[in-house]
């Protein structure tokens, strides 16, 4: 246990001393009154529903509902405009452009690298092992005094697997920067969330999203869970009204229907098993990787040709065939039973034409 992590040591100095923008809604938080403080339109909106008032900058009501679901205090929750926003804000909070580095473990989600590149932050890549696990020794060997963030995606996109607990623990203990565990697909696995370890590891940050299990990709809301100190920093550097009023309304409604989310997840898990079985029975499929997410990574004899054929059939999957360690693979999102049947029928048709049996 060599960890001597201190948030103030890795924050960029100007972020630490920054005075945030103070909005009208920060300075007066009451709900009733004559509001002449924010230069809003007093008559209403051009739309049927009124959106003339600025939304709650800290999403108080949503956090009240979310906190018990995640078994964490509201002061340790940050909501962003998609997960993309906390990914961007974390990079900005700790990485000095032109100097600092982050570590990613390909094949993985693309946004960590894009965000670093936008900020002129160097990305050091440590490939996953051939069974898609973290190469802990190689990751720790790649750490330098300029390494500020290690990005871990679990369950990982596009490989679908969960990263071993001991590997993540070892990185948390031996690295004095932020360790971000992106759990966008946590609802599709039995593996527990890292949220429960936040007390134990001050350098741990957990990301989740409303885009997948909750079916709310269109409203763009991502969750970030971390120490009170780090959440305070993210709140300080975020755009003041980063979650729109329609998004907040949809979320409040959605959080009343956890049972609907659970039913959709159960259906997706059932379809995942059935789609996996059907794919495994096709001659043109070499391998279906086990999945703890809402997609399958599938290796084909000729991924490119299958991809082109499916596009002709207006079935769109994600081509990962040129990604290192995913050679020959397509990533297929679990659809409805009907959509999955359409996919399988299409692949059978392709097989009859192209594969000598
Ligand atoms: C889909 C996905 C997200 C979600 O991104 P949003 O911006 O919240 O929609 C985050 N991380 C990973 C790894 C994903 O695959």
Quick structural summary:
By secondary structure, this protein is α/β, with parallel strands linked by helices. The protein is built from 13 helices and 11 strands. The chain folds into 2 domains: 250 residues, Type I PLP-dependent aspartate aminotransferase-like (Major domain) (Aspartate Aminotransferase, domain 2, 3-Layer(aba) Sandwich); 96 residues, Aspartate Aminotransferase, domain 1.
Please give a structural write-up.
The protein is 36% helix and 14% strand. With 357 residues, it is of the alpha/beta class. The chain has two domains: 7-256, Type I PLP-dependent aspartate aminotransferase-like (Major domain) (Aspartate Aminotransferase, domain 2), CATH 3.40.640.10; 259-354, Aspartate Aminotransferase, domain 1. A hairpin with a 6-residue loop joins β8 and β9 (295-300). The longest helix has 23 residues, at 258-280. The model has no long low-confidence stretch (mean pLDDT 96). Bound molecules: pyridoxal-5'-phosphate. Pyridoxal-5'-phosphate (PLP) is lined by residues 82-84, 109, 153, 157, 182, 184, 209, 211-212, 217, 222. The site of pyridoxal-5'-phosphate has 13 residues, from loops. Homodimer. It comes from Dyadobacter sediminis.
| Distance from first to last alpha carbon | 57 Å
- Sheet bearing the most strands, described? 7 strands, mixed
Q: SS-based structural class?
A: alpha/beta
Strand line-up of the largest beta sheet? 1-7-6-5-4-2-3
Distinct bound molecules: pyridoxal-5'-phosphate
The CATH architecture classification of the largest domain is 3-Layer(aba) Sandwich
For CATH, the homologous superfamily of the largest domain is named as Type I PLP-dependent aspartate aminotransferase-like (Major domain)
Indicate how many domains the architecture comprises: 2
Number of strands: 11
Mean pLDDT: 96
What's the shape? globular
Order of helices and strands: HHHHEHEHEHEHEEEHHHEEHEEH
Share of helix, binned: 25-40%
């Amino acid at each position: 246990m060599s960890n001597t992590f201190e948030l103030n040591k890795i924050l960029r100095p100007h972020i630490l001393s920054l005075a945030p923008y103070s909005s009208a809604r920060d300075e007066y938080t009451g709900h009733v009154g004559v509001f002449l403080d924010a230069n809003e339109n007093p008559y209403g909106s051009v739309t049927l529903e009124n959106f003339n008032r600025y939304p709650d900058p800290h999403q108080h009501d949503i956090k009240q509902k979310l906190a018990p679901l995640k078994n964490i205090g509201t002061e340790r929750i940050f909501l962003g405009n998609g997960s993309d926003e906390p990914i961007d804000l974390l990079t900005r909070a700790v990485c000095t452009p032109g100097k600092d580095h982050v570590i990613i473990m390909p094949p993985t989600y693309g946004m960590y690298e894009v965000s670093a590149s936008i900020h002129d932050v160097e990305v050091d890549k440590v490939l996953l092992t051939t069974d898609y696990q973290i190469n802990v020794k190689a990751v720790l060997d790649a750490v330098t005094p300029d390494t500020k963030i290690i990005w871990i995606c679990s369950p990982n996109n596009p490989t679908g697997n969960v990263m071993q607990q001991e590997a993540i623990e070892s990185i948390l203990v031996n690295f004095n920067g932020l360790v971000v565990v992106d759990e966008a697909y946590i609802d599709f696995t039995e593996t527990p969330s890292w949220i429960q370890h936040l007390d134990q590891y001050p350098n741990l940050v957990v990301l989740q999203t409303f885009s997948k299990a909750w079916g709310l990709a269109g409203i763009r809301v991502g969750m970030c869970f971390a120490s009170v100190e780090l959440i305070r920093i993210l709140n300080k550097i975020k755009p003041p009204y980063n979650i729109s009023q329609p998004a907040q309304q949809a979320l409040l409604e959605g959080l009343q229907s956890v049972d609907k989310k659970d039913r959709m997840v159960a259906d997706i898990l059932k379809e995942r098993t059935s789609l996996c079985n059907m794919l495994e029975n096709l001659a043109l499929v070499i391998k279906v990787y086990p999945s703890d997410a809402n997609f399958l990574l599938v290796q084909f004899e000729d991924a490119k040709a299958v991809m082109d054929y499916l596009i002709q059939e207006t079935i769109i999957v994600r081509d990962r065939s040129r990604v290192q360690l995913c050679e020959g693979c397509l990533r297929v999102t679990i659809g409805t039973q009907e959509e999955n049947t359409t996919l399988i029928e299409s692949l059978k048709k392709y097989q009859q034409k192209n594969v000598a049996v």
